[in-house]
Design goal:
149 residues, alpha+beta, Nuclear Transport Factor 2, Chain: A, rod-shaped
């Protein structure tokens, strides 16, 4: 094999490699561009994906149930409320909790059925990293139903 034949075959192979490299770069660029510019839409039918303030709602429920049963839980109820409950007992039989809702930061609302009556309470929470569960029940207000005359 002489040098001219070698050089010609070398150039042919070089052109093929350059063409393959160019095609690969173009395909890679188009693929990357399509992935970056693509938009995805998901339709979800079901329960809420993100539930807000789960810990606050759970502390509201635990604190209220512990007060209503007469066995105050010191992990979720402040000492001042426990002292008030010890002076003036708060006993409320809970048939069923109908709704527990976090209203805004630091408050939640609980609606329940007690002895066949519908009762609602607004619960205030105190937040601190020093508490075992970040929140403690600090206020309990009954929401009265206005009687129609």
């Amino acid at each position: 094999m002489n040098f001219d034949d070698f050089e010609m075959s070398y150039r042919k192979e070089n052109r093929k490699l350059k063409l393959a490299l160019a095609i690969t770069l173009i395909i890679t660029s188009l693929t990357t561009l399509s992935v970056l510019l693509q938009k995805k839409y998901y339709l979800y039918k079901g329960k809420e994906i993100f539930e807000e303030r789960l810990l606050a709602s759970e502390v509201c429920r635990l604190g209220f149930e512990s007060l209503a049963s007469g066995e105050s839980n010191t992990y979720v109820v402040t000492d001042e409320i426990i002292k008030l409950v010890n002076e003036n007992p708060f006993a409320l039989p809970i048939d069923k909790i109908l709704k527990l809702q976090s209203l805004e930061e630091g408050t939640c609302k609980i609606i329940l059925r007690s002895q066949g009556k519908l009762v609602a309470f607004k619960i205030g929470l105190d937040e601190s990293t020093l508490y075992p569960f970040n929140y403690k029940l600090i206020q309990l207000d009954e929401l009265a139903v206005k009687e129609q005359m």
